[in-house]
Specification:
The protein has helices at residues 83-99, 113-120, 171-183, 211-223, 235-244, 257-266, 274-283, 293-297, 300-314, 334-342, 345-359, and strands at 3-10, 19-27, 30-36, 46-49, 53-57, 59-64, 102-107, 110-111, 128-131, 135-137, 157-158, 162-163, 165-167, 189-192, 228-232, 248-251, 269-271, 377-381, 397-402, 405-409. The chain is an alpha/beta fold and 412 residues long. The two termini are 18 Å apart.
Length: 412
């Protein structure tokens, strides 16, 4: 059966202006036709009247952690949480993600291809997932969360669902883990190339993994026609990553103008994560994080805001990521709200749709409302250009269609 979405205002993900009173025809899983009001006739179609609503491409979160739901504090032990709990909370996050209008996520360390299979089989209701599997981390680097005086590193690993990190020292270890990640369904790789906020034995200013180690990951990704993205807060780590061939950088907190220009010249993308900086200062307890993250995150939101403006000015391809952790991840749309205040609501929407699709090398299928693309669309109550705050309220997302299938409809 066809679906006709009638008389919506459309923000298509590529144009700089909304199109008033436009209708969209969906055939099976594909956008078949886009036309003006009143000109579509489909006798066998399901017609949904969207007069007074705004239709957008399905949102994309390019920095998700659907499966990182356990306790990250120094006192907590991820191994004390059962696999059943981890699975249940992960599946709940998948549903919350979809209901918030995010039809696609790039999971930037954690889940593997097992979750993809579960969603595609219909066993779990959730977004389209592009998993990175375990992040590649050096000994003592960001993500190496076991106590510094432990005899051996320990971390939660549940192949087929979630593993946060893999500790790799030397190019051969990186290469082996990259191959294992791809075997477990990774669609791209994630490497921690700087210190991080959720760390106890490094600084944001530290660089991590050598250029040779990073090149090993890049070579393995290239062999699969894909790429490596790097967690990077400081400019030295970004420059190391550019030299090694990384295609994308997460966070970019301490970006400067010279490095932004270098990124643009290299064709490297930036995926800012402002929401996590905003929320972590107040919600660290709910996320199971140690109190030590509070001073480490201080000032990060303001610095990342400056980085967004510099990247925009330099012409860097920019995406959008939430970086939410923990259980009940229900603030995914906040990233669009915050970025909209820095650049514009339209640009923030474009970053969360076509920008992310380009970063993920999925622009031929995802990221915009265009004929021939996958039918991932959402409808919102109101005008997101005038009221971008609606993205932070899942109840304002009234219709979610993923691949031509209606996943949420509160209009009936």
């Amino acid at each position: 059966m066809s679906i006709v979405l009638r008389d919506a205002a459309i923000i298509d993900g590529v144009s700089d202006r909304a199109r008033p009173r436009t209708s969209v025809v969906i055939e099976r899983d594909t956008i078949a036709e886009i036309t003006g009001s009143g000109s579509i006739r489909r006798d066998d179609a399901q017609v949904i009247d969207l007069s007074g609503f705004t239709l957008l491409p399905g949102l994309i979160d390019a920095h998700a952690h659907l499966g990182l739901v356990y306790d990250f504090s120094a006192e907590g032990d991820p191994g004390s949480v059962s696999a059943a709990q981890i699975a249940g909370w992960t599946f709940e996050n998948c549903e919350l993600c979809l209901d918030a209008g995010f039809t696609t996520v790039r999971d930037m360390c954690g889940v593997d291809g097992g979750l993809v299979r579960a969603i595609e089989s219909g066993a779990v209701r959730g977004p389209r997932v592009f998993p990175s599997a375990a992040a590649i981390v050096q000994t003592g680097g960001h993500g190496n969360i076991s106590g510094p005086f432990c005899e051996a590193n320990h971390f939660f690993a549940l192949p087929g669902l979630v593993q946060m990190i893999a500790i790799c020292d030397g190019p051969d270890a990186v290469r082996k883990q990259a191959r294992l990640n791809f075997r477990r369904g990774a669609t791209q790789l994630k490497a921690f190339v700087s210190g991080g906020v959720v760390s106890t034995t490094d600084r944001l200013e530290d660089t991590q993994l050598t250029i040779d180690e990073l090149r090993a990951a890049v070579e393995e990704a290239a062999a699969r026609d894909t790429y490596v993205s790097g967690h990077a807060h400081n400019v030295r780590s970004i420059r190391n990553g550019i030299e090694a061939g990384l295609a994308c950088f997460e966070h970019g907190t301490m970006l400067d103008e010279a490095t932004a220009k270098q990124m643009a010249k290299a064709g490297a993308a930036l995926d800012p994560t402002i929401a996590v900086c905003h929320l972590m200062a107040t919600e660290w307890k709910q996320w199971g994080l140690p109190e030590s993250v509070v001073p480490r995150v201080a000032g990060c939101e303001a610095m990342m805001g400056d980085a967004v403006r510099m990247a925009e000015k330099a012409g860097v391809l920019m995406g959008s990521g939430s970086d939410l952790l923990g259980r009940r991840q229900n603030r995914r749309g906040l990233e669009i709200v915050l970025k909209g205040k820095l650049i514009s609501p339209m640009r923030a929407i474009q970053c969360a749709t076509m920008g992310n699709a380009r970063i993920m090398r999925q622009e031929e299928r995802l990221g915009s409302i265009e004929a021939g693309k996958l039918a991932d669309v959402i409808a919102v109550k109101g005008d997101p250009l005038e009221e971008p705050e609606l993205f932070d309220d899942p109840s304002r997302i009234v219709l979610v269609i993923k691949g031509g299938r209606i996943e949420k409809n509160t209009l009936v």
